[in-house]
């Protein structure tokens, strides 16, 4: 019997319990022994839960998991940042294998926790933290062994992709699409991390660091979310034969790299334009393997729990990549060197001030209701500082990077 300690019994944790229960016999026949959840740590012991479990399974004491020498694998499925860091650190120090779904903790403490696992000869796996149910990190870790990765791109946030799809297909207003996303459980009650791009940024930090074999920190990534987009923008973007997606991208040439998360305007027939609703996708280019694309459910109870369990199986079968999968390359961020065309819309109340912005226009799309232009190739810093010097409020403009 392989004993597991589970931390967190919310969406992901309860999905793990349900799949392990339902697939008990199949898993036993593949692994030769049963996967058994011996203890579950939660925050609120009196909470009503949809899942039926023996009362004695649930605890509020982490030590009951940590100090149990029968437990060799710990699954961390809380949304907590600092507490989960403590749980993971103590578990690895005690020589226990750890699987987590928590992108925030992986992103913030990636190198430290990876080194700790390495030092203590145990596994630290986090497949579910990027792309939910899509198996992306394991193949990426394998591909980097034989390839130089020059580009990695993704749609990594289901909430943003859902909102943009509904706005594009059904002309919904941003607030309406967000409300539906919340009702359907795609978006959190506080959707800030999703719509401002920080959830995507954390995932790109993890992907980029593995892909480029060197540290890409959260601070290295230029981030702009989808907040502020209005149906007028969608109409203009449609007229260009394009759609808009929140795209995460890392590109490298030698030891130099760029990293960004931005609303990106892409041709309607391009690959990412057809990744819709709450789906996610990641594509990367390796010098030997060429382009690889991965597509699937980026979140949700069972897809995410499935990714967690696949990490557990890799630990039991010892089939995960051993050693430190993070490289030590010294990389130089050259984000400031990027110059690209942008779609810029500013609300009509700034009409007088906008004359200055016409100087950077390559094409003028609208001068009536809202003012919209396509800029020449410019750096994002230049546009943002001009917008700020004109005193244009954050919710009165929208800026989308144009990829031709
Ligand atoms: N949901 C998804 O589709 C999805 C997809 C990919 C990754 N993830 C990641 O997976 C993790 C879990 O997400 P979720 O949606 O399952 O969250 P959730 O539904 O909010 O569940 C969180 C669980 O963690 C427990 N918990 C919270 N803080 C704790 C602490 N300090 N100590 C012990 N237990 C604690 C809660 O206990 P109580 O039940 O007692 O409140 C709850 O059972 C997050 O990091 C999330 O980013 C989620």
Described by the principal axes of the CA atoms, the overall outline is: globular
Main β-sheet: number of strands, strand sense, barrel status? 11 strands, mixed
The fraction of residues assigned to DSSP E strands is: 15-25%
Calculate the terminal CA-CA distance, rounded to whole Å.
Answer: 55 Å
**What structural class do you assign from the helix and strand content?**
alpha/beta
Q: Helicity level, as a percent range?
A: 25-40%
Look at the structure and give the mean pLDDT: 95
CATH fold name of the largest domain, please?
Answer: Dihydrodipicolinate Reductase, domain 2
Q: What ligands are attached or bound here?
A: NADP nicotinamide-adenine-dinucleotide phosphate
Count of β-strands:
17
CATH level 1 class label of the largest domain: Alpha Beta
> DSSP helix count?
14
CATH architecture of the largest domain: 2-Layer Sandwich
Provide the number of structural domains.
3
Radius of gyration: 23 Å
**Ranges with pLDDT <50 over ≥5 residues?**
none
CATH superfamily of the largest domain: Dihydrodipicolinate Reductase, domain 2
Record the SSE blueprint.
Blueprint: E1 2-7, H1 11-22, H2 24-31, E2 35-41, E3 58-59, H3 63-66, E4 71-76, H4 82-93, E5 97-100, H5 103-119, E6 124-125, H6 137-146, E7 149-155, H7 158-170, H8 174-183, H9 192-195, H10 198-212, E8 222-223, H11 231-239, E9 242-253, E10 256-267, E11 279-286, E12 290-297, H12 301-317, E13 332-333, E14 342-346, H13 351-358, E15 361-366, E16 371-375, H14 380-389, E17 397-402
Parallel strand pairs: 1-2, 1-4, 2-3, 4-5, 5-6, 8-10, 10-13, 10-17
Antiparallel strand pairs: 7-9, 7-11, 9-10, 11-12, 14-16, 14-17, 15-16
Bound molecules: NADP nicotinamide-adenine-dinucleotide phosphate.
